Predict the 3D structure of the following.
Amino acid sequence: MKQQNNALETQALNLYYGSTQALIEVDIQIPKNKVTALIGPSGCGKSTLLRCFNRMNDLIPDCSISGSILYHGEEITGRSTDVVELRKRIGMVFQQPNPFPKSIYENVIYGPRVHGIKDRKELDAIAEKSLKGAAIWEEVKDRLHDAARGLSGGQQQRLCIARTLSVGPDIILMDEPCSALDPIATAKIENLITELKEEYTVVIVTHNMQQAARVSDYTGLMYMGRLIEFDTTPVIFERPKEELTENYITGRFG
Amino acid sequence: MQKNRIESQTIDLFTRQNKEKTISCIWLGTALVAVITIILILGFLFKEGLPAIIEIGIPEFIFNEIWRPTSENPSYGIYSLIIGSILVTIGAIAIAVPLGVGSAIFISEVAPPQFREAVKPAIELLAGIPSVVYGFFGLIVLTNWLRILLDLSSGATWLAGSIILGIMALPTIVSISEDAISSVPKDFRSASLALGATRWQTITGVLIPSALSGITAAIILGLGRAIGETMAVLMVTGNAAVIPDPIYNVLSPIRTLTATLGIEMGEVAIGSTHYHALFGMALVLLLITLFVNLSATYILARIREGQTGSSRTPLFSHEQRKQIRSIIILSILVASGWISFQIVGFHGIAILAAILTLGYVGSRFLSRQSKEKIAFGCVTIATALVLFALVAIIFDIVSNGLPAITWEFLTESPRNLGREGGIFPAIVGTIYLVIGAIAIALPIGVGAAIYLNEYTLEGRLTRIIRAGNDLLNGTPSIVFGLFGFAFLVIFVGLGVSLLAGQITLALMVLPTIIRTSEEALKSVPDSLRHGSLALGATRWHTISKVVLPAAAPGILTGTILSIGRAAGETAPLLFTAVVFSKRFLPGTVFEPVMALPYHLFILATNVPGADTQKYGTALVLLALVTGIYAVAILMRRHAQKTVRW
C-alpha cells in the first residue's frame, strides 16, 4: 500500500564516477503529487541523484551504479528498462534554460513528434495545453513561430517546462531551475511549481534554502553523497533531528 | 643631467607620435593590397575580355553552345562550358555532401572519442593534398576503373570529374561539419534525450538543425573549391566541349570553364579574338563564383538570424517551406531515378523503387530503436567509404611511388622528357616559388591583419577591406593565373619568370594569411594590451612586444597552411612561371623555373610511359605538402593545449 504513494524510491543506491563514489547508500522515498526538494552544498550529490531517476547518468561514460531505483514500484536500473519510454514518463528541466534553436512552437511539439504524433491538430492542441500548463501561453500565443531564443530567460525556462509537459510525464525533475533567473522570473516559476503538483510529482534540486522552504512539501538534505535527513519540509526547517541539518539550514556551513 | 633627460623625452615624444603615424600608414597600405588586387583583377579581366565580348556579342558568347575557337569558322560560345562547370559541381556536391555530413555525424556522435582523436587530424591532413595529385590519381586509376566497371570506351567523364571533386571536397566538409556538430551546446543534447528522444532523433531533430549554419558553411567551402578547381577536372573529365545528351548522362565527357582556360591559355596567340574570349570566360567564371559566394553569405546570415531570433519575417511562411521541401524531395527522386536508369537501365529503376519501398515500409513499421540502428549503420558506412577513398589514393601513390625514389631521382635533372633522370630542378623550383610567395605575402598579410584588428574600429573602410579580402579568397586559382599573365608577365613586363610566379602565388595565399592572422590577433585578450598600454608603452610597442608574440602560433599556423597550398598549386603558375624542362637552376628571379605540380601534370598528361617517374613525382609532392600541413596541425594542437587565457 505504501508503495502506491511513492512515485520514486531508491534502495541502497550507490553511484560511482570511475573510482570516486558520488552517492553512498541512498534510501529515499519520493511521495506522489508532492513537491520534494533536495538541498545540500555543492558537490553533495543532489543533482547526481536527480539524474539517476531518468537515467541521464547513462550519458556519462564511466558511471556505474548499484542498488535499486523503483518507479511506481518498478525497477528501472536494469538493462532491459526502456530508457526512452522512461524519460518520456519522467521529464526534466535543466539549470540553464535550454530551448532548441527553433521556433517556440517547434520547441513544444518536439517531444510529441519524437514520440510519433504527426497529426497537426493534435500537435496544436498539445502545444496550447502545455504552454498553458507552464503559464506562458498568454505571453507567446501570438508569436508561436518566432525563435525561442528571442524570449527572456524566465520565459525560456517556462518554455522548457512546457516542453517537458508536452510528452505527458507524471514526474518532473528540476535541476536548480531558477539559478540562472532574476527574482521576478524566479517567483513566477515557483508559483508554477506549486500549481504543477496538482497533476505531477515534482522533484527539485535547489541551492536556495528559502526556495525549498517556500515551494516544497518534503525536503531531503544531502551531504557528501549521503542522504542525511528526509522529512516534511516544516520538520526539516523547524525541528531537524540531525545536527548536520540544523547546521546547514542555519547557514553554519555550505 | 636631469634637464637633459627631460629634453630628450620631449623630443622622443614628438618623434614617437610621428613614428606611430607612419607605422599606422604602412599597415593601412598593406591592408589595401587585397582590395587593390581584386580591383586590378576585375579591371584586367574586363580590359582583356571586353574586346571579345563586344566582337562576339553577349548573347552569342554566353548562349551559343559551340566552342570552336581554332576552326576555319571560329565559334566562341561558352554555354556548354558553363553547363559543364555547373554539372560537375552538382555531381561533386551530390557525392560529397551525404558522405561528408554522414561521416561528420559518425565521428562526432557515434564513434568513441578515441576514434575522433585519431581520425580528425588525419582528415584535416588530407585537406592539404594538392589538386594535381587528385587529378593524377583520377587520370591513372579512377578513369580506368570506371572504364572497366561500366564498360565504356573512355572513363574520362562527368562522373569521374564529380567523383574526384567530391573526394577533394570531403576533408573540408567532414572537418568543418564535425566542428559544427560537436560545438552544439551539450544542453540541447541532454534536453532532447530527457524528453525521451533516441540518439538518432536527437541528431536529426536538434543537433543537425542547430549546426546547420556550420554545415552549410562547410558545404559552401567545398562547393567553392569544386567550382574553381582546374587541374583535377582538366585531367579526368575528357574535355569535350559538349552538353551531355541527355542532360543527365553522367557518362558523357564534359568540359568546364576552368579546364578550357587551363588548356588553351598556354597556346593562344596573344591579342587574338580567342585570347580575349578566354579572358571574357574568366570574367564569367569569376562572376559565377562571386554569385555563389554572395548567395552563400546571405543564406548563412538568414540561418543564423532564424536561430537567434530576429524581428525580420522569414523568407517563406511555414506552409510555403513545407511545399518547397516536398518539391525538392520530389525532384531529387525523379533525378536519381533518371540517373540510375541511365547507368544501369531498367534494373536501376527497379533497384531504386525497391530501396524506396523498403525505406517507406521501414519508416512506418520499424521501431525507433531499429531505425536508429539502421541510421548508425549508414553513417558508419559513409565514414568507411570516405576513409577508404582517401586511404586508397594515398596507398596507390605511396606504393607505386616508393620504388622511384632514389638518390639520383632526387638530385638529378630530368632527361628524355622526364622519363629518365630526376626531378631536382622541380623540387628546387617549388621551394624558390614558395619562399618568394611567403616572403611577399606574410608581411603584407600580417600587416593587414594588424591594421584591421589593432588600428581601426569597424567602419566603412574595414568593411571594404574585408569584402575585398573575401572576394580575393573566392577567386578561382586559374583566374589568378590569367591575371598574373596579363598583368605581371605582359603589362609589367616580367615575362614568364620566377618572380611573376612568386607574386601570383603570394596574391593567392594573401587572404588566408590575413584571415588566420586576424583570428590569432583577436584571440589575444584585451587585458594584455591594456596592461602594456597602462605602463605607457606606445601602440606599436604594445603590438610588437606583447600582442604579436602572443599571436605568433596562430599566425604561424596560417602561414604554414599557405605554404602548403602554394607548394601544391599548379593553375596560377601555368602561364606565369613554369617551364617543363630546364637543365639548370634559375640564376635570377627573371628566369622561368620548373615546379613539382606542373612537372607531374605534364608527365601525367603529355608523356606516355614514364609511370615510375610520375608516381615518384606525385609521392614527393604529396609528402612535401602533407608534411607541411602536419607541422601546422601539430603546432595548432600544441598551442591549443598549452595556451590558456
Q: What stands out?
A: Chain B touches chain A through 27 residues (CB under 8 Å). The mean pLDDT of chain B is 85. Chain B has two domains: 79-308+319-392, 426-592.
